Amino acid sequence: MLVVALLLSAGLAACTPEGGGRSGPAPDDGSQRRDVLLDQGSADVVDLRPVTVQARPGDVVVLHSGNPGHGGDDESPVHHLFTSAPADSPPPLFVAAGRGHLPNPGSWGMCRGGDPARATGGCPIPPVEGPSAYDGRSYFSLGALLPGETRELPLAPDLPPGTYRFTCTVHPDMYVDIEVVEDPTTAAPLPPAEVAAARQQVVPHTTSGPGRPVVLLGPQPAGSAAEVLTAVPGAVRVPVGGAVTWRVDDRSPHTVELGLDHPPHLADTTATDTAPAVPRGRRWDGTGTVRSGVLSADPSVDRTTFSLVFTRPGTYRAYDRFHAGIKTVVQVG
């Protein structure tokens, strides 16, 4: 228990400055804080637009999540995990633990130093042994970033000029480009995200017709740099003996869990909670609990669909452990 909670607290508390959002000189050493606002989404829409910030060597880049999430609710999902690993070879999101999975500290934790190729099961080297500031060569990860939180990235005083990219391990199309130059300029923030437009592309499709429905979890609408935290469709009807399939199309993790009175609590998650628990023949009579296990296109999981046959009439709710706001209502009969 609390493995997830410990990773989150390490990523959140240790790196969050007091009075996050201030700009101006950093304390004592004359370096400047270079603030950048990202993810101007909402509780149910994640804004995935990349951002750019300019800085000098020795400055401190401060990433601010503009997404309010659920207003401080501890069930707000983890939206971003920024690392210095190349976008085409990000560290895995999870590590195997028995029949289940746990977050890979190399992605979810705060790592400093080492080879990114060695971040497959944890930080490449103990962070206390790594550099205190980003030197452009060593592996850095900024920890799990929840809505409304901030992260500080100190730049080494001898960091060579150039562009350094930090990519979100969950959403590889989203990144922060840090342009190290002699005379930085302050870029205008991105305009507010068009969350309503992204939401409207998926929310009208709230029910499905006859047949074997397929439910998409956390879709990213075509042509929109956003992830919508919903199930599409959010309500389905099947006959007794009918099946429902849930699907994910990207690295963002999800689960399908039924037979619960309320959404599962992410912070209390153990490896057992992420292990599949499926009735014989994937035929469920509405008794007991069902767990899909982690669904993600990340190679550490590589399980993107889950199907279940419903054998008893009734109304059932399927919850998502990683996104408390995502649920599917299944009407049987």
UniProtKB/TrEMBL annotation:
Gene3D superfamilies: Cupredoxins - blue copper proteins. InterPro entries: Cupredoxin. This is Blue (type 1) copper domain-containing protein. It comes from the Bacteria.
